[in-house]
Each structure stands twice: as structure tokens, then as C-alpha cells.
């Protein structure tokens, strides 16, 4: 049988993610280009890798029910191949004989001949039931343990399920829909950077204009770099939620000057690029600040004024800026569909360590704003400790800040009330965006 280079590429990405803590979105695209895998083959490889990693918890439960030893005793390379095969059997339109045969061949080529028979036997057992059938067999009873059922059925760690359920508040009945949305591949969304590209231009290239962000266009598929405006840096790939929080900051009412804008945590540069374009249209300038130099270099490709500096120890005078963005480092639980490996790497303790940093960054951002200036506090996480908790704590200790109502600044968005009055919480299952949180605070 000839070597299957598409599945081989997917296997190599899984190996890099497991052995090197690599990120799928950073490893896969250059690997596909290097091996000249394009079109439908590239789409197949992308779904195979991302889908396998997203549902790894469920697939491991299925595999554990079909092997005669703990999964920890299975060769890691064989286990990677079995996960790829299981995803093809249970979640992709791949015939059983093709999914089993190509996976066995993959094991033979990548690991060795001896374990190929084991892989064949395991996958033939997996093929006896469909995805729903296996969920009924390996997940806890939803009636007696609904969170345990969600943990297995939707392949999210238990602590993540609990945190997201809490974030939904009195809408906890939407938990299954939210977790299911995390397992769907996100749409490819472009941003037409004002003054550089137009929505009409991107629509003419095959996209569809959005009703939520006035700069967003979604693509049906393909390589975004093939769009001329993207290749030339006049447009970019950016989640619509990121566009919405940036435009909300830009649209907030302001008395007095409107020339000096700041992004205190600018890397990798998507929001900064949009804000810089909006500021330029008004005759203003954006200063982009980023702690990590390699990320600052990424920002510099789209924003002319970039400094490498720690946002908790500012290099600028207080009261300097008219508009300030603080897109704080967070747990990233609102972007799990985009970062498939993140759910398996994060721990609940990570949130506890991030909250003091988030509070400090917001405090320093407020210091940077002039009286009357506005600050957008943004996270790609809906976790209450990182959203409501941070904003409430900062407001409680400052008498020079008030919370503005951000909802009117997003007229195309509905059903997005945040956990504090006036804040905004976007959701994958409601809005088709990452779960971005936005609070607008004004210095007075």
C-alpha cells in the first residue's frame, strides 16, 4: 500500500503536540506547505488533527473500553494512531475499511510491524458502534451525574465543565450547546482593516459579510492567504469577537482629545492592527506594547509603533492616553474550538495565578488613561474569576473609575449580557465567536 502522506502529516503533528508541547495552529500550516498538501487534502488533515485532539478525552474512554491494558501501557505512538483512527470511524465520513486499513498501515510505518495487529483488532472493536452508541456506553448517566456525562460526551476536563457551567449562570441549560460548539471547527473570518481594505473587496473574493462586525467577512473554506488583501497585509484573519471588542473601544463616546491610543498586551497583534487602522482614520496614533519580544515582532508586521515593555510596569506617564485596550493574559477557555490542545494543558490552578496579574494590568491601564479616557478590559475567557471578579475588585478599590454600558456599542449583537451590568459576554453557541468578555471603564 502506498504511503498515505495526508494521514502521515496528521500523525506527525500529533507527535509534536505530545512530545514538544507544540501548538496545532503553529505546526500544521507550515508542515502542510512543506509537504505540498493543499485543497481537500489539507482540509482533511486539518479536521483529522484538530478533531482528534479536541475529542481526545472521549476517544481515550472509548479506546480504554477496547484494550486489555491501561492506556498508559500502550505505546504513545500507537495511541496517537488509534486516536486518529477512532476520529475517522466515529466523527468523519471515512468508510470503516479505509479508516482501519490506513491506520494499521500508519502504525506499521511509524512504529513497527509488531503492534499493527493490535491496532487492527482495537479499531475493529471501535467500529462496532457509532459515536452516540459509545457515549451511552462510556459516559456516566446524565440523570445522576450531568457534569460527568458532559465531561466525557463533550470531551472537556471536569474542571472546565464546572467553570463554564458557572459562567452561564441562570442559562446552564445551554451547557451542552456550548460544549458542543467548542468541538466544532471555527469559521475562517477575515477583518477588512479600515482605510486599507473594504468588506466589498473581501466579499468579491468569495466571502460573506457579517451582520455583527462591520469589518468581518467569513470564507467558505480554502487558504485565507490566497485572498490578495490578506496576502498584502491589508486584511487579516481575526475572530469576529476580537473585532467586536476592538470596535466597541473605538466607538465609545469621548470628550476632548482622541489622538493617543494604547494597547497594553498587544501580541500577537490582531486587535492592535484593527485599532491602529481605526486610530489612523481619525488622525490618531496607536502605541502597541507587548511584554514578550518575539510577540512584539509579530505585532510590528502590522503596527508601526511597538514597544517591548511590561504592562504592569509602564514606560509611559500616567494620564497620557485617550483610549486603552488591555487584552489580558487569561485561561483561554473561550477559545477552545480554536486551540484544540488547550483544554488538556490548562489546570484550574492556572486561573488562580492569572487573576492577580489581570487585576494589576487593568489597574495600570486605568492609570494610563487621562481623565475622561476609556479603557476596554477584555479576556477570551468567560470564567467569572477572570471577568466579573477582576472588574469588581478593581472598581471596589478605585474611586476614580466607573463602569460604562458597552452593550449599545454592539448594535448587531443580541443576547450578550455579561455577568456585571453593562458588560458584554459573547458565546460560541450564541454568536459564533470566541467567548470574549468586554468591560468598558472610564476614568473620571
Automatic annotation (TrEMBL):
GO molecular function: RNA binding; RNA methyltransferase activity
GO biological process, one term: RNA methylation
Alphabetically ordered keywords of this record: Methyltransferase, RNA-binding, S-adenosyl-L-methionine, Transferase
Any Pfam family hit: NusB
Record InterPro entries: MeTrfase_RsmB-F_NOP2_cat (IPR049560), MeTrfase_RsmB-F_NOP2_dom (IPR001678), NusB-like_sf (IPR035926), NusB_RsmB_TIM44 (IPR006027), RCMT (IPR023267), SAM-dependent_MTases_sf (IPR029063)
Domain SAM-dependent MTase RsmB/NOP-type as annotated: residue spans: 161-444
Homology family: Belongs to the class I-like SAM-binding methyltransferase superfamily. RsmB/NOP family.
UniProt-annotated binding residues for S-adenosyl-L-methionine: 265-271, 290, 327
Domain of life of the organism encoding this protein: Bacteria
Role, per record: May act as RNA methyltransferase.
Entry annotation: catalytic residues: 380 (nucleophile)
Listed name of the protein: rRNA cytosine-C5-methyltransferase
PANTHER family per UniProt: NOP2 YEAST -RELATED NOL1/NOP2/FMU SUN DOMAIN-CONTAINING, RIBOSOMAL RNA SMALL SUBUNIT METHYLTRANSFERASE B-RELATED
Amino acid at each position: 500500500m502506498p504511503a498515505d502522506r495526508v494521514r502521515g502529516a496528521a500523525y506527525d503533528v500529533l507527535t509534536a503536540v505530545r512530545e514538544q508541547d507544540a501548538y496545532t495552529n503553529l505546526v500544521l500550516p507550515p508542515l502542510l506547505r512543506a509537504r505540498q498538501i493543499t485543497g481537500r487534502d489539507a482540509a482533511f488533515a486539518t479536521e483529522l488533527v484538530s478533531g482528534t485532539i479536541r475529542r481526545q478525552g472521549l476517544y481515550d474512554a472509548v479506546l480504554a473500553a477496547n484494550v486489555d491494558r491501561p492506556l498508559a501501557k500502550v505505546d504513545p505512538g500507537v495511541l496517537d494512531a488509534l486516536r486518529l483512527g477512532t476520529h475517522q470511524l466515529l466523527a468523519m465520513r471515512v468508510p470503516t475499511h479505509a479508516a482501519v486499513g490506513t491506520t494499521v498501515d500508519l502504525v506499521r510505518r511509524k512504529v513497527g510491524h509488531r503492534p499493527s495487529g493490535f491496532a487492527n483488532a482495537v479499531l475493529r472493536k471501535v467500529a462496532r458502534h457509532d459515536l452516540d452508541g459509545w457515549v451511552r456506553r462510556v459516559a456516566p448517566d446524565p440523570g445522576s451525574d450531568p457534569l460527568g456525562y458532559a465531561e466525557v460526551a463533550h470531551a472537556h476536563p471536569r474542571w472546565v465543565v464546572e467553570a463554564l457551567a458557572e459562567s452561564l449562570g441562570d442559562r446552564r441549560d445551554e451547557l451542552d450547546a456550548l460544549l458542543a460548539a467548542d468541538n466544532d471547527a471555527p469559521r475562517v473570518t477575515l477583518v477588512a482593516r479600515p482605510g486599507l481594505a473594504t468588506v466589498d473587496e473581501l466579499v468579491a473574493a468569495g466571502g460573506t459579510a457579517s451582520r455583527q462586525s462591520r469589518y468581518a467577512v467569513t470564507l467558505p473554506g480554502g487558504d485565507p492567504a490566497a485572498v490578495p488583501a490578506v496576502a498584502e497585509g491589508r486584511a487579516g484573519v481575526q475572530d469576529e469577537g476580537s473585532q467586536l471588542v476592538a470596535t466597541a473601544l473605538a466607538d465609545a463616546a469621548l470628550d476632548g482629545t482622541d489622538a493617543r491610543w494604547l494597547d497594553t498586551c498587544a501580541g500577537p497583534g490582531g486587535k492592535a492592527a484593527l485599532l491602529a487602522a481605526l486610530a489612523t482614520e481619525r488622525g490618531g496614533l496607536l502605541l502597541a506594547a507587548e511584554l514578550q519580544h518575539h510577540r512584539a515582532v509579530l505585532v510590528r508586521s502590522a503596527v508601526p509603533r511597538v514597544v517591548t515593555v511590561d504592562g504592569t510596569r509602564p514606560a509611559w506617564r500616567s494620564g497620557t492616553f485617550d483610549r486603552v485596550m488591555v487584552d489580558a493574559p487569561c485561561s483561554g477557555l473561550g477559545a477552545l474550538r480554536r486551540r484544540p490542545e488547550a483544554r488538556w494543558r490548562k489546570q484550574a490552578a492556572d486561573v488562580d495565578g492569572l487573576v492577580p496579574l489581570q487585576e494589576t494590568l487593568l489597574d495600570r491601564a486605568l492609570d494610563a488613561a487621562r481623565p475622561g479616557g476609556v479603557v476596554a478590559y477584555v479576556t477570551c475567557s468567560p470564567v467569572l474569576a477572570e471577568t466579573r471578579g477582576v472588574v469588581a475588585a478593581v472598581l471596589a478599590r478605585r474611586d476614580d473609575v466607573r463602569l460604562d454600558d458597552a452593550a449599545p456599542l454592539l448594535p448587531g449583537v443580541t443576547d450578550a449580557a455579561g455577568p456585571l451590568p453593562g458588560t458584554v459576554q459573547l458565546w460560541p453557541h450564541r454568536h459564533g465567536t470566541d467567548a470574549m468578555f468586554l468591560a468598558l471603564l472610564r476614568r473620571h
